[in-house]
# Entry
Amino acid sequence: MLTLASDFGTPYPAAMRAAIRQHSDAEILDVAHDFPRQDVRTAAFWLREVLPYAPPAVHCAVVDPGVGTDRSAIALRVGEHALVAPDNGLVLPAARELLDPPAIAGSGLRGVDPVDSPDQPSDESGDPGAASTPTEIEAFEILVDDPASSTFHGRDVFAPAAALIHERGVSEMDACPFLEPRTEYVDLRFPDPVIERDDDPDDLQIQGQILVVDGFGNAITNVPGDVLAERDRVEVDGTSWPVVDQYAAVESGTGLLTVGSHGNVEFAVNRGRGDGVFGVEAGDSISLR
Amino acid sequence: MLTLASDFGTPYPAAMRAAIRQHSDAEILDVAHDFPRQDVRTAAFWLREVLPYAPPAVHCAVVDPGVGTDRSAIALRVGEHALVAPDNGLVLPAARELLDPPAIAGSGLRGVDPVDSPDQPSDESGDPGAASTPTEIEAFEILVDDPASSTFHGRDVFAPAAALIHERGVSEMDACPFLEPRTEYVDLRFPDPVIERDDDPDDLQIQGQILVVDGFGNAITNVPGDVLAERDRVEVDGTSWPVVDQYAAVESGTGLLTVGSHGNVEFAVNRGRGDGVFGVEAGDSISLR
Amino acid sequence: MLTLASDFGTPYPAAMRAAIRQHSDAEILDVAHDFPRQDVRTAAFWLREVLPYAPPAVHCAVVDPGVGTDRSAIALRVGEHALVAPDNGLVLPAARELLDPPAIAGSGLRGVDPVDSPDQPSDESGDPGAASTPTEIEAFEILVDDPASSTFHGRDVFAPAAALIHERGVSEMDACPFLEPRTEYVDLRFPDPVIERDDDPDDLQIQGQILVVDGFGNAITNVPGDVLAERDRVEVDGTSWPVVDQYAAVESGTGLLTVGSHGNVEFAVNRGRGDGVFGVEAGDSISLR
# Structure
């Protein structure tokens, strides 16, 4: 399977899909093509949220403000996954998440044992699951004979490279003529929140950050959702807001704090935009209490 | 085949697709992921318009204002189709339509006999077509061990349940460990119009409703299109509008009545928005004459 | 493979995909469904940019302001490709491009020989590549028994016709019961620019046109990109603008000329809309010097 993500809007990604089909019949799963344009950080956040839920795949992601410069194109290998992208940190958060992947979705359904899932990678050694826990990120540079000959690297470099890596096999990347091992790559890390505990164990002070705002206006922080457990209200920058499990628990237009699908604290509004009501945008520092 | 529909925008549905791939290789056909947020009624309308045109499939649809409450998750079986959704009525109009499905698209092409289509369900009894006419809607509850452990039921409950039902087979739903037969579910019905005939058979009085407004601003009513046959103009709430077969029959910006792809009367504007010119929105009562 | 393109927005294209699945299991590659509504010219431009990058396929494209009139439905054959569309010129630029297709994407990757690609059409005569160079556009009319019985020809005519042509084989179109050879069809051509050279070979005067504006506001001209080679600045309608390889080479909000992925000169703005800053829209004449 190949996954495809970009900030290209439409219809440019169709040319990437067409280019892939010249080299591979592998299924193409679109992650999104409407990432905010040239916003590597937001796209990196979403790739981290989505890619680890996929079975082993070659992931092709292009948000590339440096196209036309001498930035490299890279391919990372994390166990049975490969990630193909410009060398600007775009896929690093996702790659690290693949080192410690989430539980397979659906394991909460009664009677479902994820080990029985037909698509799970099997381990020939008979040790179930061992094969699926990679321990390192291996990096390769993608060699392009004349990068300047194309202005659409998504179609002419990244998509074909991902398709050819898929066809040759992720385990065979070392032998691929257009891949060269390298040890360095641009990294991108989301900041950890600073959590201070007072004498009173219930009185937490948290310095966090808005990581991204999603298309609905939900402002997603870097603060783990478990700090909201057992709390009814939390102060954000000095203003108190209700903590709820569902938007509908507050009146229409009212701000709220909840835990999003990403597991982090999210500022939202029932039938409205959280970024507007809370007056925040991506990158803002926030203080919770 | 699996179909997938939601109000999740982007990129959340990609996590649903990835989750499906952990359990099934079945093809995924996206219906739409930009349904108006938390608007069960509009999504139910569109699901009814689209799903009955598909061959037998497991349909997964999530528009779920009640996530986080104790609303159930359900799976319906209608012949060879299954529908997986929150128990809020979302898939009931589509389920009922599957009891009386439309003709297979393309049967108007010269020389094409839909019975010859390779994907048609065959009936071993030799009675063509009999297998494809289900007579009842069977309901199951989807059992989740700890629903509150996830805030993203689309990824963690509905998508995996649909994938696993597909893998085990729709005919085997009775034996599925996470499905339990039940007789009740939340229903949702669109109102029928009230059509009064005067002494003059040509003088119809119709009390109808705007069911939904589509992305182009076309206001779709619950009034069957055949009432427009042989008519040049129709009064809507006292104002007369032209009846046309194609938008271009009136000047740019002019309102018109036509029959949409759904077979109902639609208020539209050539190169404009019908909801604006007609001053209507979803749920409004309208009177035609 | 089938490709699918329209101006239907959402969720109408899902009904087309469902209809295809009644007749064919072929992969469906969506080109775009958000072409500007009823804008045949813009859609024709994008189809020309995308379709030639695909391996042999049946391409179904519907932008159809004449639906409801007596316009024909056509199917074109260009070598191993077929194009199904309303007879309004929509697929003619793409069809002509298939007579002279671009290099296979990815041939710039080191060590990659496109002839080795698994999906390349093979030529039984042993003459590699010969099969992939069609020399003519063959036209067929799609025969529909009662066109007026449907208002959604995308679902009821074009999608099923494309699916059935795929199943029967593009080489068997002559024997297809709903296809009839014809010699005439509506054509659509984009104008060529007029390039005048002065005594000074570096002083070019070019009369061109804005062909389309893409979703980011980039105004794409009909002027081939090579006229920008070795130039730092170019005058557009008397105003001088920088020529750059990448948006980031100018300040945020500043206009620029560059060569787009389509190979033509494009008016753009770093982190802004080129159509606004340059004051142009599709169809405008422009003068470059």
The first strand of chain C starts at residue 2 and ends at 6. Residues 20 and 243 of chain C are 46 Å apart (CA to CA). The first helix of chain C runs from residue 12 to 21. Residues 116-130 of chain C have pLDDT under 50 and may be disordered.
